[in-house]
Amino acid sequence: MIYVKTIGRLPFRQSHNLIREYRVQTQSLKPFRMSSSTSAATAPEGDTAVAQKNYKIVQDVGNFAETEAKRPDFDQAKLIEVTKSPYPNWKYGEGVPDNGASLVQKHHEIDPYAPDRPMINNYRLLVSGIAPRPVGFLSTINSEGQKNLSPFSYFQVIDHDPPMFIVGFSSRPGRVKDTYRNLKETRECVINTVSENMIEAVNATAIDAPYGVSEWEVSGLHEAPSTTVKPSRVKESVFNIEGKVIDIKEFTDHQAPGMSLAATVLIKATRFWVKEGTADADYSHIDLDKLRPIGQLGGVSYGRVTSTFERPRSKWDGEVLKNELLAKLDAANPNK
């Protein structure tokens, strides 16, 4: 069985008729508030056992080695191709120029909180529909200096000035994720990018190792010293971001019996590290062919970048002077 921890952090409740009503309420983490790991530890063992039985995020893929053996080899030398965009002659107001083909099928409405909708359906829908997603590969330490290394699916950069990142931790049976516990205790981490050649080692850190066991040893990845935080950087990564926790939001009314709290963590970058030979002279742009990023898809699937295309952004003041539709919209603007 393949255990993929990187795609199991969806902040939706366990829908087995335990919670009928969901209200989105977030609260800032208080310094002396009981931690989610404490609350999970005091939960009845029976509740945790039931929650674990109903938790189907980690899927059994059968004899994966046999399945993979039938597939073509991974071409590590394949260069990233740059093509034209899908509709290079697109004009303002055209929408999708496919003769209405994208308008034929109707949409099916879904209530994600319906009592008869299993949580697993929301998870599978989101990770297959919101794709690709970057891998948030975080190194952390706890208050005793014990190390942790773990990949996350619910991760994204959300601003550049200041550089900010967000990581989501979904409700799960029993205790909270080790990374979340460490972020609450020490409020420091390093975010490491994941390239194609790293994926086996990165995926290995997704194993549900006991608290205190270092995934550095499990993966065989190498540590590099950080400057502004205590956790180490992953030396194999092209790009490392040292960061400190700015805020933590816990979704208290989401928690079901036997399940940990769901939460999001806001992280502010304190230092960048870019591997030499992978960026331009002023370190303002990383070469995509050197980064070779991996994206997460649905199930246990990952995706690679094999081709790209470019679409420049336009400025209204320049376009409105040469386009009839934009000129009409500009003239009819009631706020002008």
Give a structural overview.
- With 336 residues, the chain is an alpha+beta fold.
- It has one domain (5-90, 109-331): Pnp Oxidase, Chain A (Roll), CATH 2.30.110.
- The chain has ten helices and 15 strands.
- The chain has helices spanning 36-41, 45-54, 64-69, 119-129, 178-186, 199-204, 215-219, 288-291, 316-319, 324-331; strands spanning 27-28, 81-82, 133-134, 136-141, 147-152, 155-160, 163-169, 188-192, 223-224, 233-234, 239-251, 262-274, 294-296, 302-304, 307-308.
- The strands form four sheets. Strands 1, 4, 5, 6, 7, 8, 11 and 12 form an eight-stranded antiparallel β-sheet that branches. Strands 3-13-14 form a three-stranded antiparallel β-sheet, with no helix packed on it.
- It is globular and about 65 Å long.
- Residues 1-42 have low confidence and may be disordered.
- Its cofactor is FMN.
- It comes from Penicillium arizonense.
- Belongs to the flavoredoxin family.
- GO terms for molecular function: FMN binding.
- Keywords: Flavoprotein, FMN.
